[in-house]
Amino acid sequence: MSAGSAGSAAAPCRFAHYFVICGIDTETGLEPDQLAELCSYSSGEQRTGRKPFLYQNCENLEQSPLKRTFRSKVLARYPENVEYNPFDQNAVNMLCMPKGLSFRTQADPRDPQFHSFIITKEDGSRTYGFVHTFYEEVTSPHICSAMQTLYQMHNAAHGTANPPPPSSSSSSSSSMDSLASSSYDSSRDTLYVSKALCLITPMPYMQACRSYLAQLHKAATVKTAPPLPLESYVYNILYEVPLPAPGRSLKFYAVYEAIVCQRPGLGELPLADFSLAEAFSLLGIENLVQVFTCTLLEMQILLYSQDYQRLMTVAEGITTLLFPFQWQHVYVPILPASLLHFLDAPVPYLMGLQSKDGSDRSKLELPQEANLCFVDIDNHSIELPEDFPQFPNKTEFIQELSDVLHSFAISANAGAPPHCPSGSPNTPSTPPKEKTGPFALLQLEDDGRNGNLIGEELATLELLQGNSTLERLQALTKRTGVTVAQIEALRDRIKSQPTAENESWTPSFEEELAHAKLNVQLREVFANRFTTMFADYDAFVIQSAPDLESWLTNREQMHNFDKASFLSDQPEPYLPFLSHFIETQMFATFIDNKIMSQWEEKEPLLRVFDARLKKSHLYNIRATSLRSSNYQRCSTLKETAQAVEQKLLRINHRAVRPHLLDMKIGQGKYEQGFFPKLQRDVLNTGPPLNKWPQRTATAQCRKDWNIQRIDNDNDLKERHVQDARGLGKNLRQPKLSDLSPAVIAQTNWKFVEGLLKECRMKTKRMLVEKMGREAVELGHGEANITGLEENTLIASLCDLLERIWSHGLQVKQGKSALWSHLLHYQAFEDKLEQQQLQASSPGGTETAKHNMIHSTEQYINTFTIITLWSGEIKTDVGRARAWIRLSLERKLLSQHLKQLLTRQALTRKLYKRYAFLRCEEEKEQFLFHLLSLNAVDYFCFTSVFTTIMIPYRVVIIPIKKLSNAMTTSNPWVCVSGELGDSGTMQIPKNVLEMTFDCQNLGRLTTVQLGHDNAGLLAKWLVDCVMVRNEITGHIYRFPCGRWLGKGVDDGSLERVLIGELVEPCAEEDCGRGCRTPPQLCSPSQTRRIKPTSAQIQEAIGEAVNCIIKHFHKPEKERGSLTVLLCGENGLVAALEQFFHHGFKSAWLFQKTVFVWDFVGECETETTELLAMTWQSLCRYVNAINSTPRNIGKDGKFQLLVCLGARDHLMAEWLPLLVGSPVTPRMYEDAAPLRDHTTVGTLIGVLETLHDFPITLEASLVKGVNL
Fold first, then answer.
1. How far apart are CA 704 and CA 727, in angstroms?
2. Taking Cα atoms as reference points, which of 241, 228, 237, 347 lies closest to residue 299?
3. Nearest CA among 379, 357, 375, 378 for reference residue 366
4. What digits encode the pLDDT tens for the residues 1000-1048?
5. pTM for the structure as a whole
6. Burial per residue of 488-523, b for 16 or more beta-carbon CB atoms within 10 angstroms, e otherwise
7. I need a labelling partner for 398 at 20 to 30 A (CA). Which of 477, 514, 783, 855 fits?
């Protein structure tokens, strides 16, 4: 067995996997880091439009040598390799020193710094690194001479003969390269270089590792040598300190002070050791909640700070609070200089970028900002994306978090320095006071648990204390006054030594305990919000697959969660956030884990969350709050804090103390102030049989080994799961170990494939869901999409298009890459048109010019419309999204984007070769997927931009064969929609077409058309009215087919027409879409055919049923009630058929008789009846007759039915009409109105409407005073 493998036999159970030393390699000398200038480029130092300046001939004469960044190397690592966690040298070196080596002189600050990092592998597993960086004096004459030479070259290049004396910088030490002196003289100055000690661990024990590394570094710098060689302490942490068992605490020993850590149990929140108090203090509560919301919605999040540890603290704090969900995308809390190109990734990410001291945020240009949440940690500010939904109960949530922080005496204001009762988490913990050598050696000699020495006295006392017989004898001697002198002396001596509890209770331990309690309480508050919002989520999980294999095979075709039903069960204020959140990858993965749990073991976070829900259901917490937005505070804060405190105080396991190793004479010596190279032969090989002192650790090791073996066996299944889940984890992490051009190209190709797949999935989802609703209108099934959900899908499509247009940009201009491209295209077209006009002859090129203008006319129209609204839509991102929505509503999105990409010269100028928009095959597939959206109708622009002014065109089409095309009267029109009406507008005489501007009316529902009956030709037979929205291009047809005039038809001078959407039929629009089921149109005399009595009853029942369904939909999804009342198949039309059926022939009355004539006769002959019901009917009839509107007899009957339905009186009026003496005179015996059974059934159907508040449009009840 090799040394590396020997030391890794129990790696899954070890506290630390590697101990690493990074620094300068004196053999290779100074190697400038050619990637350093990329950091300067990202910090806004170079904004000239040219590529970042790289070192040439390994030298950069522009910058002071001490401020340059040189390449660091891994000087040593112990052990060489761990089987379960292979060492990634490039990644570790890059993250230990993200900006390379840093040099200082004696005049510069050289305080040690601490930061942590994380390496996320392609399978999603994480490894944590904890780094202690300090400065060592450079003793190599070659390095000092090289630095002196670089300064001479630098001074010669700048003409500086006498460099200025060094000056100390007062800036933050976190930005190391900005603090270096401006000069160096080897004869006068002492040169120092940065060096890093690093622990690589499988779990994030940040506080413990921080304390351990600080003590280890101190041991190498203090005058008094530590009790043991440094190899003993490193060997101990690598091979003899186990991970704590779940639910247990562990105490192990560093150089000067013991360290205590704990691991949550299987039913508790997972381990999180990064200080949430610091994260809240850096950002402020409200800002952190906003960033947390952006993370939940899987936006692009960029953290920005000079301090690496601040980046990690905020990143880990936010992801920790996501429980029970997990971040599924790119996660790089510290982005090295070599990976700055990854900011171009067109996927959600959470990354951290180091800022330079004094750098200006306004100069930092990022590849894409349309969906970016920028977090400036040092300045305590954030920049949020547009159209950002708020977290539910945000105000109450922030108040509860403030109360928790105040209970620990921590300020909740942004920018306040983090404060804890026992110290500051913002600064490194102060190392404990140094213990003297003899005292520490005495501890080792007296420790009976040490594997190297035997302590007889402690063993004797433990024997006495563990023997019940001896304890009873001792108690008896005390009662009799006799003392056992040797035993009492032994007890006093042991008491004088620090016990485990007393030794642990130090200021640093108090600080750690306070942080642990605060962390768990804050996390409980966040977890409680998800427990409340998703208390019944499992009721909406769709588990239709019989086995795991079939589910994996058909994953993409399956609906795993009933989103529409889930949203309908939520309180109204929660919907904007939840409708976006349930579309995220992290929620999809959560539901996938839930479904797979029926065939295999539950994922740990899901297991904990389900256990919490089960406990809350036992107490019926959710039952009283169903569909209620009342805020519920967390009730378990005290219990969880006590549990953490008990685990830290009651230590379950103590690791073996560091001890002398089998080292050769002379090994282990070191020079003060220099951290030595440790003995490789001692540290690369662990103990042959590594037995932990307790069985729990052995059992845990065996369990971890089995889990690892099972994971290896299931690699194929895991890859299948990831493929089924789509984009998520296969684009999760960049490879830090290989940065070759081939790997970067492969990564970009994965992005292209991922974007195309995401486009296919989104368009398919939008198409299927939308057609599902239209299938309902055709009578097939039930709708499974709501308007809120539809708007979420379209917003997601806008985000996707922005990410596609941001991928591979050459130069970033503005926050919206798509709008920037549109502006470039417009400028390009204008320039091309001018050139063609100047170069064209009067004859030959006229046709070509006409074709060119015609091909871009629709695109320019859409672009110009959005540009004209620049005053109302104030940002580039808003304009781009408005352009997308308008193009989609006009069914021109694919056509517009295709036209935009036809100018390949422009595309090559704006985009790099690997960009998505320059991949021809993928681009064609992308446009084809967008073209499929033309099969359905969207109103995504009309329904969102509700306050803009829109021009409408009205065309009145008369029936010329039967009447005059014009009328001598003064016609007028009023157009109404879901958002309002235009008001009454006069139509100029002898004009059948007019245009008017009005605030967005939404989808049009009714048109009121009439005239004043003036002149000789006052009669007007109108076929229909056409109204066109000049912005969206939607055309509505309002059928009429009736006369308007006195003494003709029913004498109406005014009619209310119900509209239908007309599909375009022009040649240029033939390929845009397909037929969508029309809205219901206006009733007309042509529909008056004689149906049977059964058909009439069925029509009434269907009309009432549609109204009831209308009220069972969410309020924002109900549409127009006027259509259901007055449309072709509405309630008015059905009741009119009921009253017309069995009417005696018109020749009997010598005139055309209408239903309103029957109602009027009933009202006239029953005025002497004083019944309250009759009085109400008479009052309504009189009010309608006295209205100043000339709506005709059919219009009056329509108004009576609408008012009766609104006031729930129709079921009471019907028996009165049946019992009226007028009924036998005007109806035949077989009429349904004279059939008591039919009438009774009809009354029962109408009574079902009494439970619903019916509100009528103003266009229906105008002029009626009731």
1. 29
2. 347
3. 375
4. 998 898 999 988 888 777 788 888 899 999 888 889 999 888 888 888 8
5. 0.74
6. eebeeebeeeeeeeebbebebbebbbbbbbbbbbbb
7. 514
